[in-house]
Amino acid sequence: MLLDTLVLRKFEISRSGSADVLIYVVGRKSGFIYYILTIIGLSPTTSLMCTRDRVEYKWSGLKGEESLTIPLNHVTGIVGGYTKPIQLLILAGVAFLGGLDQFLTQKSGLGFLILGVIVPIILIVQYSYDKTMRIGVQNGGDKVYGLQFKKALIEGVSVDIKLVQEAIALLNNAVLASTSNNRQA
After folding, report:
1. Domain range holding 69?
2. I need a surface site. Which of 81, 89, 91, 145 has the fewest CB within 10 A?
């Protein structure tokens, strides 16, 4: 699943049984230019909305707008979860070994402190906080319609993997309910 990593502008899930919209997620492309475009109302956005009977995937930008509606009983897969940048842990290990080499071969305590301690700590902290989360649906085949995003610092949208897992469970339950309703009809 190759999706652009977006900055979240909205992440809403319904915890009440009576809401029409169960999940609504909106993201914009990341970067300073897209932030400025957002301020003036021209930022390309992607959204995923799940209601009781359908999933709508929408993209809009300067070139126009396109949307795809998938009836819930035609959703063939739900994709969700997160990834972490394992390369940061590898770099932390390499930095530690480089610092250790500085200490053993050059007797440089400062080299070890910077390269072998401070740099690995920064990389490990960054690894522990950096998650790219995903939520999406399949409509047959391998194509996934969804969003890949990170926490938004500027927009102030607070989301974590537990909220994403809650949204995935809600979407899964809606799809299963829709499928079982079709079998009974």
Report:
1. 5-80+133-184
2. 81
